[in-house]
Amino acid sequence: MTADNTIQSTDTKRGEDSQSGYRENWWQYFTFNKDHKVIAIQYLVTSFTFFLIGGLFAMIIRGELVTPPSDLVDRQLYNGLFTMHGTVMIFLWIIPSLVGLSNFLIPLMIGAKDIAFPFLNALAFWMFPPAGILLMASFFLPSGTAQAGWWSYPPLSTQNPSDPVLNGQLFWCLSIVLLGVSSIMGAVNFVTTIVRLRAPGMTFFRMPIFVWSVLSAQLLQLFFLPSLTGGVLLLLCDLSLGTNFFEPFRGGDPVLYQHMFWFYSHPTVYVWALPVFGIIAEILPAFSRNPLFGYKSVAVATIGIAVISATVWAHHMFTSGTPMWMRILFMFTSVLIAVPTGVKEFSWTATVWRGKLHLDTPFLFALGSAAMFLFAGVTGVMLGAMPFDLHVHNTHFVVGHFHYVVYNTITVGIFGAIYFWFPKMSGRMYNEGWGKLHFLLTFIGANLTFFPMMPLGLQGMVRRIASYDPQYQWWNVIASFGGFLLGVSILPFIANIIYSWAFGYKVSDNPWHATGLEWTTTSPPPKENFKEVPTVTLAPYSYGRPQYSTVDSTDEGAVRRHHR
Amino acid sequence: MLRILEFLVLGVCFAAILAFSFWLGGESYSWMPAQASTDAQRVDNLFSFLVTMSSVIFFGVAGLQIYSLIFYRAREGDYTEGHPSRGNRKIEIFWMGIPVLLVLWIAGYSFSVYVGMDVIGPTTVLGDLPVPLVAEPAEADTVNTGSQSDERVADTVNIGSQDDERVEVISKQWSWTFLYPSKNVTSTELHLPVNRPVRLILKSEDVLHGFYVPEFRTKQDIIPNRPIELRIVPILVGKYQLHDSELSGTYFALMGANVYVESAEDYAKWLEQAAAKTPVIAATNQAALEHAQPPKRLIRSNWYTVLPAEPPIVNHSG
User: Fold this and answer.
1) CA A284, CA A416: separation in Å to the nearest integer?
2) Which member of A149, A251, A338 has the closest CB to residue B130?
């Protein structure tokens, strides 16, 4: 799709310094800036800060679980820590970091000047830090944070031991509602942008898979997020205003909340996973020099996943007193989602098959994410087999499966994306050696942390317990060691990104010789992204065909330096 | 020639993966706890099947990825293009069709396992209307399991059968009480006769709890003000642990109870002896004990907590 533009952009001499100025003026990151690229960095940096906080909570949890008795933190704090860990990682790391990446990439990938509603975009971002700070502030309340898990099932969550107003659960509810409203604003923006602002010639079936993924994910947000936001609002009413929506002894139904919660919170897993599948589909072709295999079926599978994901939520409730017909119906819909997901996995595998693979950091993260997603996928199908789920539901087996999705697939994929588009964001190159070290530590640490949870769950270790039977200790020690290694693994990443952002050597516009409109503009892109609106004439991923080669030979020295 | 060699290598690898997967499926039984109920055997068979199938898919696809990593690396600085193939309709239909069949096979097999299971699923006791929770032993006789129009239940389970031992399970923060209506015995231990169907009537007095004995391979959430019935057939004499499986607050991890599956004679003897005792306050309430005397911890938040409910008054306290 990009051949013409590529040739154009490599013809035009790049100025000594980027004319955008968004890199040089660091203070604009602290302002109500409406440039999608600035907002993207704001999202990424803020969410990464929360990722570190959530990771710290996780390591305290793993610290507690090194030994069977409860001896590191008291039980209230332990419950608060895993509640906050889940909430922070989901609502303050995965969702906003992907919104950040989408913010940066979507207008560039479809050839737009900015997002459809820049003001709304900035407004949505600026609701996010206050919501996060509100959540963290609950640590300083006398009754502490919310302690009912990130699901906040009533009546436990509404069982209020202290102050009816100043309690952690209320702070949690307010924070989730704020973030929900912010995300709905973002969804309106993304869907409108993708539908309305595509450059001439950018038909739907010329859109990169990442754009398809974000479209599907944000449509899911639009359709389902109101259910969670509404459910949490009702919970807040029960908690603080004396209503009885979910109070079992006063005519309410606690299971109703579970339906409202999972009606969103299952599709939301695909709000996180789909963009990462998109990232993988962008990175693998670029580093194997093959076109994405079966582009159209992957695009359709993306929509297919979104549609099916809307019909599977009650598989989280197989033990919640759901009647038999519901258990069986949701078992069938749940395993069916493996089909479009499989299409993606097979397509990635076929893409690297007989390729010319370049094992740079983004590729390692992308393929690592794809490989570990295989494990997440097959264990997911196991959980869909409902009679087996009755045994492992609410055990560490589920926790292990879930973290293979959210860490080993999604977070690893996000790292791949950051390395891949770092040159475009900063105009500079990261350090390859440190990147590879980060990958190695992450890959080992992630598997050491989350694999042991599978045998623990099979053996019956219940999740969310602060103390456990000594028979489970061995695997827990390994998981904790892996957890601390994951903590260490993040250090080379931080050092690499900060150093390279400031001192990394400058790169050409397309250091990976990748296709895609974003690589045809300068690094970093100017305000409004393109010198002139590009016209698209090709389907994406025109690798493998020398006549459309995107190899950028303007700066071969940089490539060599990078590989040294 | 090279192509043929490659196909040969891949063929051998795939055969090895198949053999390994079948071995792994057999091995998977040992990853589970003891099989102490009829359902445990069925679930383990299903799990073994799932492990075999997952292993073929996982090692098959990951193997292709690793194979690519090893054999398809580009030479340093070689940015020439790979192959131009953008897809292949036949292959794409194949890898869409095969998974459809596989997951339908999995779901179909799971369905047949579920239908054969002795656990009758959540059947609401006393209809769907909320009822006062104070459970009189006599109420157990009016249990109405057919209210959910669950035909299979009505067919295969003889409602009110003399064979089914009935136990009421009362959960509260953070203790279990078991009530044996036939002898009007209460206990903090769950004693069950071996090889006899047991109907557990699960009740909660405060928040959600979950009934989970890993050796029985089943789990059921307990919902306040909505008694739920669970049927189990224990088949292995032994001592097991009951866990609360739905987060229930501060002392959640301490909410356990000993489960004894014993021979019919031992069980009858135990019931008899327990019935002879006068009810006393249960001594071993871990939550209450820890709340009264918190152990030493490195980091203390001292956040408020819901207090442990009064320890139950029981004939037999274990």
Assistant:
1) 10
2) A251
